[in-house]
């Protein structure tokens, strides 16, 4: 059986072990409650904490989508009344009235983007820490920002958020928002030849209520914004507090909550797998992810109906071959499952790196608004709609010559015309949202799609031990993703001591073609092959982690995950690289915490920033002479223009088959 984080099957011995775990897990026993009632309360509270973390992730993702379009009123709905906002060195703004003044100041005094304006504020790499009482939380995020004004400027911007959240009337809101603007440079020259500049120098911002809470200098200076959390390879998450409950929930109620969490994770796995299949040009695998009546609409080429036509569309894009690059990243998910558990909706962002034969290096930005359906216990894509926001020649940038939207192809006529005819950047497009602002609480859906009754009275065959096992696997998967995201933040600052603590005692580390390093001491030395401990002035070293597909073993002691990485690296005045890769990693629970047992980073493409991936492709790093590896590379491959993409550790989530390389 393929490994799966959401498996509901367990061996008899495992059931007994997990039942014992459930009995000693943090519990909330009402006065006079039986042991069974106390166990049910504890399980329900653990499931609620998982749901809380998921809601906070959706909340922050929606914030990013709103700031993309200067939807300031919707952002205000996400904030508590006593919120504090702090962007860069602007100072602290207190309360919603001041927050509104600041946001509208950033937006030139208006709601919505200016004509010809581009702002993509991608929210990535969350590390969420829920307080023991479950009423507040903290979160660190990596923001990758693409800015532009047609025929005026194009800019890159990055930096972490360190935010606080509070639950009010059953819904999470942002109570403190602090973005550390550590890097803003023009597109031309990027982080090699460009000096930093302000992105708000031309705007009227109101005076702050308080001075900045932290004093720091942006790049090319080195700043390390403080972390709200301890190294997750050393310290476990804070233990939850027991809280009283009026009555013990039924097992059916707990089961429904767990199913909802499992469904959301399954939908995310499905969409992320779609992206990984597109990378490989594995078009039959892509088509297999859709329902029999599914629709696909990408850009302006029209609507294609059913897997057969979807496969025709995909094959029109080309075969997997050397010289072709198709990195279709899947980022910033906002997934909602309907009350009946039969359908779901999802909003995603994709930053796209494309190379066709004979064409320039292309860079694009896409918003997906998709629908999903559960059939036979498996989630499938029922509607995929990719709204093109911007496509440009990477060497020219997006401020001067962005491409026009695609149109229906005479050689591939669609089944239906485009649902909407639009122009992407420099036009201003807001891809419609499937949901209302989470700050409004309810109703969620814009239509009656969620009108199906919730099966509130349905019975369940799940036992407490089985529910404990499923909840534990969800907790494990969340902890592993948190661990991996923390890895990215430490690597960004070359905090090699912190990185090393994330590995298990006998771990292995393999990056590119450098070979395999075994054990913490050797890994620590191998990390310095890319630079000494700590950044130096002028260094830029972002290694952004996202698109994780995690599978925990049934016994909860090991796991595997596929992770995407975007690498933006360089040094002012000397060099700048842009690259993308994939990790296929293994994890182990050691001393009660999850750690990385084997990290294997495959380089997909690496290029000189000034030349793009067609003219500036760089080779995969090879073995070091000064620090020879303990073992040779486990696989030999080449980065772009070669067409090697590492195999997935898991089966197609719809067909259950392992994807076949070379299927076209």
Give a quick set of tags describing it.
alpha+beta; Nuclear Transport Factor 2, Chain: A; disordered N terminus; 7-stranded mixed beta sheet; 664 residues; 3 domains
Q: What would you note in describing this structure?
A:
With 664 residues, this protein is α+β, with helices and mostly antiparallel strands. The protein has three domains: 1-33 and 463-664, Nuclear Transport Factor 2, Chain: A, CATH 3.10.450.50; 46-223, Nuclear Transport Factor 2, Chain: A (Roll); 252-444, Nuclear Transport Factor 2, Chain: A, CATH 3.10.450. It has twelve helices and 20 strands. The strands form three sheets. Strands 1, 2, 3, 4, 5, 6 and 7 form a seven-stranded mixed beta sheet that branches. Strands 8, 9, 10, 11, 12, 13 and 14 form a seven-stranded mixed beta sheet that branches. It has a six-stranded mixed beta sheet with strand order 16-15-20-19-18-17, with helices on both faces. Helix 2 runs parallel beside helix 6 and helix 2 (35-68) runs parallel beside helix 9 (464-492). It is globular, with a radius of gyration of 24 Å. The model is unreliable at 1-33 and 445-457 (pLDDT under 50).
Overview in brief:
This protein has helices spanning 12-24, 35-68, 72-77, 95-106, 190-193, 251-280, 283-287, 306-316, 464-492, 496-500, 520-527, 612-615, and strands at 79-87, 93-94, 117-130, 136-149, 153-168, 171-179, 183-186, 290-298, 303-305, 325-328, 331-337, 343-355, 362-375, 378-393, 503-511, 516-518, 539-552, 558-571, 575-590, 593-608. It has 664 residues and is an alpha+beta fold.
